[in-house]
Amino acid sequence: MQIFEIFFYLTIVLLPTQLGYHFWPDWTLVLGRRVDYLAPTLFLTDITIILTLVTWFVQKNTRSTIAKTIRAHKILLCVGISLIVGNIFFSSNPTITLYKWGKVFEFLLFFYYIYTSKPSLKKIAYCFAAAILYSSIIAIPQLIRQQTIGGFFWFLGERTFTIDTPGIAKINWCWFSPRDCKELLRPYATFPHPNILGGFLATSIPILIFTLQKEKNKLIRIFLMTSMILGVCTLGISFSRSAWMIGSATIFGILLLTTKKVWTTRIIGSICIVTFLLFAWPYIGALNTGNESVFIRLDLASAALRLFTLRPLTGVGLGTFLPNLPNVIQIRDLYFLQPVHNIYLLFLSETGIFGLIVAGIAAYLYKKSLHISKQMYVLILPCIAIGLLGCIDHYSFTVQQGQLLTACLFALPFLKTNS
Predict the structure, then answer these.
(1) What is the per-residue pLDDT for 6?
(2) pTM, whole model, 2 decimals?
């Protein structure tokens, strides 16, 4: 195994971590408050990504491959770069926008590395299994203790909090006694929010299921199975309703496409769906326009559309939704100071029609390069899942773990299923 492959697989293993060093220039302040989403941060995974790309780039054949790609798509690339430059130039804060486009470029290069170097799909699945395993080992005790574990896990990015910490994510436990609900701390593991933990599990567990059905080594099968079981349990206790629904559909879809015994899959799937409904219905049924998480999302979506109408051509600038938010909405409390929970509205408001053209170019290049067998369609399902999660949350576009996960998932369909 070459050194760039070691750094790559290490990046996948470290995907859930958020250990990093934050910088706080003046432009990270909104209404006098520090905003994490705006802070330039050097994460541990940034270092492993850079090491992967640099050690891979020094090879002569890598440089020639990149040169061929640029020559083949030079017109489209020139148009895309021109539109990005325009978005930076007309941004309400060019410094933030330049930094955010730099992050986009970083993950595009990481995607291109996977697409070009064709790493082993099995090894990627093993790395995801390791990441799911230690995330579950951290999350489950957090739920039991109703606080973080601390100690060594701080180095993985576990933040220090208890159920009494202001702004911490909680859930009302009302299943068995609707008159006597109990407030519980939702586990974070090493993620910034339980919803991100849930989204990670909902999109990565299907990859393990796909790999398990092809794995013959008994010890590895036990490892994958253990990781899957703990991952499903952790997905449940994340209390992420979107991850529950989309994860269940994706897992069932993977089983339906890959299991030879269709009736067995249908029976297992039916049992899982019934169990899911019994488990999740009280919380899904609570969603209405009076629910806090719903009306915050609606207000932020309305604000995104207002920002788009202010600058429909160029947008307000990538990454500048939050600095511009007070101009179009009254910030009622700290919870409103967050990105709109829809990556498509967020991208539209920040990049405008220019951004739509850039996204169209990227989609065209992606589709043109996508030549997969019928069996590989199962790896499209996690991509669809992360895309659907982006309709109701923003972490796949605004958070380090979400961006890295998205880059990985969209690169997997290009890999060989037997590698």
Answers:
(1) 95
(2) 0.91
